[in-house]
Amino acid sequence: MSLDDSRFNTLADDLIEGLADAIDEALGDRLDADLHGAVLTITIKGGGQYVVNKNGPMKQVWLSSPVSGAWHFDYADGDWISTRAPKVTLDSVLAGELEATFGVRVEF
Known about the structure:
Elements (H helix, E strand, L loop, with lengths): L4 H23 L3 E6 L2 E6 L4 E7 L4 E6 L3 E8 L2 E4 L7 H13 L6
């Protein structure tokens, strides 16, 4: 599915805002989730930082993880799918890593 700029921005903004809300709700006392514009920075108290942002020209959402490195996700079939592992979604990567770190499953 090819996204026009407006649809991409709406989907990406909704995703990033939803991630911020869910993470803050589940783990707000253990990390800082700061949303500025379309950039979500998740700083783990004691070290480590995730960054989730959108890349308009590529129509992708990018995740920088202190655990697994850089990920790029395309929107397809109602989800954000990894460009390096086609069966992996952004929410599964982020939820899995946060659960491994904190022992709490974040539902996106």
